[in-house]
Amino acid sequence: MQHQHEGLQEMGEAITQLSNQIGELCVSSATAALPPVASASTMAPPPLFSGVPSTCKGGGPWIGRQQCGRIVTLTARLVSFMTALHQVFNDGMTEQRAASRLMSLSQGPRSVSDYAIEFCTLAAETGWEDDTLMTAFYQGLSESVKDEIVNREWSEELDDIVTLATTLDARMRERRMERRGRPPCLPSRASETPPSVKPCLTEDQPPQEPMQLGRSP
Q1: Which Pfam families match (predicted)?
Q2: Are 102 and 137 in contact (CB under 8 A)?
Q3: pTM confidence score
Q4: CA–CA separation, 92 vs 101, rounded Å?
Q5: Residue 196 above 70 pLDDT?
Q6: For the chain, what percentages of helix, strand and coil (3-state, to nearest 5) are there?
Q7: Contact in structure between 163 and 171 (CB atoms under 8 Å)
Q8: With contact defined as beta carbons under 8 Å apart, do 62 and 46 qualify?
Q9: For the CA atoms of the chain, what is the radius of gyration?
Q10: Which one, out of 54, 71, 116, 188, has a CA that is 20 to 30 A from the CA of 28?
Q11: Is 51 helix (H, G, I), strand (E, B) or coil?
Q12: Longest dimension (CA), the chain
């Protein structure tokens, strides 16, 4: 036990001596260095190392003392900014109101992509499960898109259903545009009027003389 005590005492003396040497080295280095350039920062320089190892943990107590007021000020400004931002962009949408609008939402004449944007915006406010959201999204689609989806494999993810419906709707719209841009069909040959054919003259029938103006018959 006595040997352990002596060993700890020697270790403490060695640490103290090493700390003093480090302090002297820092002072000599600062003296030999070039004159410091004036800095725009108003932060006070940290204190020199006191030789106590426990003060080397973390950022040091001096940081908390000097920066506490600044941190409190920045936090208060952040809270005020978030409050103002919430007041500007929050439309007062409640979960019940979002659910009511979501149940009555339908695609109508617009594209599935526009319908999906509004649907997902309201769905984020309801907190519903994906199964319920998929059913509500499918019910709001147009009949033509529903007819195409029923022939495809039904996914268990809402994002997959939205992507599938958006892709099918885009293809259907492109197909309708192709049909509108196609030239009109030409009439069939059976309905065409045959060209008029002049009768051929035979040898027994002399050609008729052209009518001469100014002569009496």
Answers
A1: Retrotrans_gag
A2: no
A3: 0.42
A4: 14
A5: no
A6: 60, 0, 40
A7: no
A8: yes
A9: 46
A10: 54
A11: coil
A12: 165
